[in-house]
Amino acid sequence: MISNKNIAILGGGNIGISIAKGLENSDLFENKNIYVTRRRIELLENLSIAGFKVTSDNKEAVSKSDIIIIALQPQQLNELLAEIKPVLKSDKHLIISVVSGASIKAIKDHLGNKVEVIRAMPNTAIAIKESMTCICADTKTNGSLKVAEEIFNQVGKTLIIDEELMIPATALCACGIAFFLRAVRAASQGGIEIGFHSEEALIMAAQTAKGAAALLLSAESHPEGEVDKVTTPRGCTISGLNQMEHHGFSSSMIKGIVTSAEKAALLYKVE
Q1: Long-range contacts of 211-219 (CB under 8 A, 24+ apart)
Q2: What is the rounded average pLDDT of the residues 76-103?
Q3: pTM, two decimal places
Q4: Greatest pairwise CA separation for the chain in angstroms
Q5: Does the structure show a pLDDT above 80 at 270?
Q6: Considering Cα of 131, then 136, then 137, then 140, what sign does the dihedral take?
Q7: Which CATH architecture has domain 176-264?
Q8: What is the pLDDT of residues 144-155, one digit of tens each?
Q9: What residue ranges do the domains of the chain occupy?
Q10: Among the residues of the chain, which ranges form H helices?
């Protein structure tokens, strides 16, 4: 049973804290069974107050846990792997890496193939159980993949993909949070210009974006099908859409995602 296991989140930065908060709101783990590490543990005070185990000692957290989520920056990964390698046990530990660009093979090579490794790419909406998380293993028959899927299904939607698509998933899902937030911000600014107060415009834009996404997910429909429902001949919606396209709305979003994917591919160096 996963719920009987301890879990360690190595790296209490933005994504690590978001994962911790998401697991807090799930049905799998109690806070007392979740370790979160960071060099400056005073920055984890809120988690400590909430009952999480916080420490600056990665080896301690690994020794006392069964599932290890690595949530560091790519440039910090190799040093961490060298640090925890002596306390990893092949018959006990499962590593789930959310480090951008670091392949399963690279991680296993550093660890001497001591443990199973799963790659996952959630986004910060995991804190409110709304993440889109992509996961992969080096083989589709890897039983640990089911463990990771069970964990991340508790905090949003999960999709199993081929590892070669993990960097594109980083751009579309993890970076994508910022892209869609910027779109909401732009919509709210438009709302201010046409007469709403900023607080009103932001609520209206955010809820409208939430409704648009919910339409697609609930009906499994295509965006253009939903667009067709609100565009009429010579109407105000199609006029606004065409003006956005004239100024490169879709092409800018596409180019941004492609550029982020290209950058993500360069973040981790095997060394």
Answers
A1: none
A2: 94
A3: 0.91
A4: 69
A5: no
A6: positive
A7: Orthogonal Bundle (1.10)
A8: 999 999 999 999
A9: 2-163, 176-264
A10: 14-24, 45-49, 58-63, 77-84, 104-111, 144-153, 166-169, 176-193, 198-219, 223-230, 236-246, 249-264
